[in-house]
Structures are given as C-alpha cells and as structure tokens.
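ligand=adenosine-5'-triphosphate
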Amino acid sequence: MLEVKNLNVSYGRIQVIKDFTFSVGNEAVGFFGPNGAGKTTLINSIIGLVRPTSGEINFEGQSLLDRETYQIVRMGISVVPQDGELFPIMTVIENLRIGSSYIKEAREKTSERLEFVFKIFPILKERAFQLAGTMSGGQQRMLAVGRALMAMPRLLILDEPSVGLQPSLVTELFEKLAVIKTEGVSILLSEQNVKQGLKVIDRGYVVENGTVVIESTADDLKNNEHVKRSYLGL
Ligand code: ATP
C-alpha cells in the first residue's frame, strides 16, 4: 500500500532522514524512537509537508512526491497530528464534519461516516454538541482520530497519540486503534511509548538518528535486547 524507498530528507545542510526504506500493507506498523529521531519528519514527508531530497514515496502504486497535501488526503491518507489541531471553539460534531468536508466522496457520505466514528467512539456521540476545547485530553485525542477517520482513509497515520495521556487512556485509545484496523484501515503509528505501541502493531521499525536500526514483527521486537534495554526499561 505505502512503499517508501531510500528516502533522504535535509533541513538546510543537516540531513535528518538517511536512506530510509519502509512499507505499510494491510496492517498496523509502528515507528519507535526517541525525541528528534526523525519520526515527524518521515510523516511530514509522506503527506507532502516536507520535500525529500531524494528517494521514492508510493501509495497504491502512485508517487506522492510533487503532490500537495490535500491531494494526498484525497488519495486515502489521513494524519492525526501530534497536537491534534482541533478547533476548540467549535463543537465535536462540527470538528468531525470538517474532516469530511474537503473530499467529495466523504462529504457525500458524511452521515454514514459519523455513524462509523460514533460506533468506534460512543463518547463523541454523547458529547456531539459540546465545544471541543472543553473536553478532557483523552476525549480530544479521540476526537482528533475521529476527525481523521471522517476523510475515509485507507491509511491512518498517528504522530505520537499517547503524549500527555494517562496510562489508562493510552490503553483505551490503542484498543480503539485495534478496532479501526479490523475495519480495514491500515495504521502507521509513531510512538515513544513502545510498550503500549507493541500491543497494537503487527510490525515495527526502530528509528534512531533518522535511520532504521531494527525492523521486525511485534513479537520479535518485544524480545529484542536493544528494544528491551532502551525502550522497555527491562
Ligand atoms: P519528536 O518526538 O520531537 O517530534 P521526531 O522523532 O518526530 O521527534 P523530528 O521532529 O522529525 O523527530 O526531528 C528530527 C530532527 O530534525 C531533529 O533533530 C529536529 O531538531 C530537526 N528538525 C525538525 N524540524 C526541523 C525544521 N523545521 N528545521 C530544522 N530542523 C528541524
């Protein structure tokens, strides 16, 4: 589905992504690594916010290079950014409607999509007319995911969705990601919370200094000495 080959990205003279190759199929894939490893830069490259210096990014056989972000979203990729980027003085349902408003096919199916999102996140239906900014951190994170789903993505990308959430909410959110996967949406999850992330993903990449240091299945990552020592505190 998503194929990235030999990607290089620089900010000015500083190269932050080095010869990075990865793929996402009909599965959940993780990017794990410390702050500044380059995870956000990778995501921004996929959705056209950062232009790589070289390499290939293909989605369902079509190159994403030289495409604008709105075109990439239309092709079936939605991102939940690190800070959620909700509209705090708009209601929950208004925020959700914005998620489908830019894409004709999704806009025509807004009611259907709302039902889909409400089925996964019943709390958003209960709070439909509450202002987004007055919801708890966990509920806002759910809303950010719900809004991304309104665009009918086939690939959902999440940039560190666990940041700032208490552990029980992280568990709840990640359980929802598992449900979303069973609904046929592929997932690319960038996380520093490797312990929780490993529960959701099928395969993962450990990213350090802009390059892949380990690529493996979730089970193998759990047992990998470097992962255990550096990310699981074992
Ligand atoms: P974080 O968890 O902090 O978002 P990350 O793994 O997502 O970390 P990036 O945000 O992609 O990492 O950053 C990779 C490197 O690029 C870091 O050294 C960062 O300081 C640098 N960097 C990020 N954005 C820019 C920019 N716009 N200009 C210059 N350097 C940048």
